[in-house]
Amino acid sequence: MGETIAGTLALSRSLPTLPFDLIVEILCRLSVKFLLQFRCVCKSWNYLIVSPKFIKKHLHLSTKHLVHTLTYSNLSHKYVLNSIFNDVTTEVAHLEYPSNHLDHFVGSCNGILCLADIYNELFRLWNPSIRKFKELPRLKKQQYSDKMMMYGFGHDPIIDNYKVVAVLHASDGRGNLIAKTYVKVYTSGTNIWTNIEEFPFGCVSVQQRSGKFVSGTINWLVSRMYPTKRQHFIASFDLRSESYQEVLLPDCGAVDVYNLRLGALGVLRGCLCMVFRHDVWVMKEYGSKESWTKLFAINVMQDLSTSYTSIKVLNIFEDNQVLLNSTRMTDKLIIYNSKNGTFKFMDFGNSAEVCVESLISPCS
């Protein structure tokens, strides 16, 4: 099969034919934009580029990270991270988001963005790189007045499927909230929501509704009264086993709701991270409290604390430049140099999410 495809890949009989394995190695390092164009070269190239094996290989080698933003008009802007640092006015793409409702980013995984229409209780999966989109079945609640507390999106690498998780706070027949929650999970390929084990942490206050996906788990920053004082922790959901655990915060002094609002959970280089006061912490070994390590302090936090409600770390680079998201009425992206403490602001719509470029379809 390999020799047959390699033979057809030659642009001319008079030109030498590259070995098939070498052709694959070249193509899988190209951007999605070029690969979509190259599908039209011939049937063999199309067959190769859409094959699951090639798509996974391309994802493994993908180094192009994109910043996606949504505006209130539901137009999506796409920026290449490197272009943001070199030229803050560089706009790579202006995409029509396929929805008439204002959605919120739930998260991203392997190039797929998950967005939630909170008002209509709809979730959508979208890969802007290949412009493919899937609307999930409507979330069915136990009571009409039940409230959606938290949500998350991630990938189970063992089974190789994607899951959307929704945690809902139950109410009685009169719409009064009660100290009980239930959890629904959507698994790709099933096209249905399933009920799973009840959320075991009781009635919690949610500091950020969108969970962070890391190490096969979705994580939310929450707090609760236990028994007479407020306890802050990370509620973790394992996508593979569909089980829960508490993950402890770093030992970084007294924790209160105000401090948590100034910071947020994030993911840096595959590790769970947290902004607390002015400091950025990472959990180098997932689930181990002892592995929390302070990376650096964000001096700009002192200037932001009076006018912004939260700071989220979006990405960190080898040269110690950090991409931050500051949220109040509108979002601002901040480029922060952790070495010299300098920063600059950029206005990019009302929300931002970083994802890798991929060929993975949300419709599978």
Task: Walk me through the structure.
This protein has 364 residues and is an alpha+beta fold. The protein has two domains: 56 residues, no CATH class; 295 residues, Neuraminidase (6 Propeller). The protein has eight helices and 25 strands. Strands 12, 13, 14, 15 and 16 form a five-stranded antiparallel beta sheet that branches. Strand 6 and strand 7 form a beta hairpin. It is globular, with a radius of gyration of 22 Å.
What are the main properties of this structure?
alpha+beta, 8 helices, 5-stranded antiparallel beta sheet, Neuraminidase, 2 domains, 364 residues, 15% helix, 4-stranded antiparallel beta sheet, single chain, globular
Write a compact overview of the structure shown.
It comes from Trifolium subterraneum. The protein has helices at residues 2-8, 20-27, 32-38, 43-49, 52-61, 81-86, 257-262, 301-304, and strands at residues 65-70, 75-80, 93-96, 104-109, 112-117, 122-127, 132-135, 147-156, 161-171, 177-187, 193-196, 205-206, 212-214, 217-225, 230-238, 243-247, 265-268, 271-276, 279-283, 292-297, 310-316, 321-327, 331-337, 343-347, 351-356.
